[in-house]
Structures are given as C-alpha cells and as structure tokens.
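Review form for a predicted model. The reviewer records the input and the model, then writes brief findings.
Reviewer: anonymous (R2)
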Amino acid sequence: MRLLPPGTPAEQARGGAVVDTEGTYTAYLNGIGARAVLVRPDFYVFGGTADTEGTPALVDALRDALPEAALTGSAAGPRGCSVSTPCRPDSPSCPHRW
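Model under review:
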C-alpha cells in the first residue's frame, strides 16, 4: 500500500493508498530511516529498506526465511523463482503452474 502524509485529502487516497491521519506511520518510517517495510501477517515488521528499489530483495529474504511447507498456493513459486528474478508462466522452463 502507499502511505500518504497527514493532511492529504481523503479523496486522493485511491488505488490502495491510505492517509496517515495522525502521522504515526510516517514518524515510525522516518525514525527507522525506511521508505518501505514488510509487515508479516502477525503484524511484526520483518524488515525495512531505505528505498523502494530494495523491496524485491526484502520480499526474497522473507521467502528464503519461510519453511518450504509455507510456500504453497498460486503466489508461491519454487525457490528458483523470486520477485527480483521471476520466471514466466508461459516459459517451457517454468517448473510450476501459476
């Protein structure tokens, strides 16, 4: 999701964007020097990155930290696939079905 700063009119929060109405998240991100954070489903922060270009590596790090059994479903490819080096579903060398 994209975080919009406090004071942004609510009508500008479209396409997954949210307004940080009280500035809590903005202050947190500024305090840790992060532009993006990856939050686990249990609401713990897995990690952060100082720029958005580091986001794919952060997602790959989470994928590598998960047990193999957790990598199931259509969104989880085999270990050879990653956010930074995805395989193409129409490629004959893609070892899984999307």
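Findings: The mean pLDDT is 77.
Further findings: The first strand starts at residue 2 and ends at 4.
Recommendation: see findings above.
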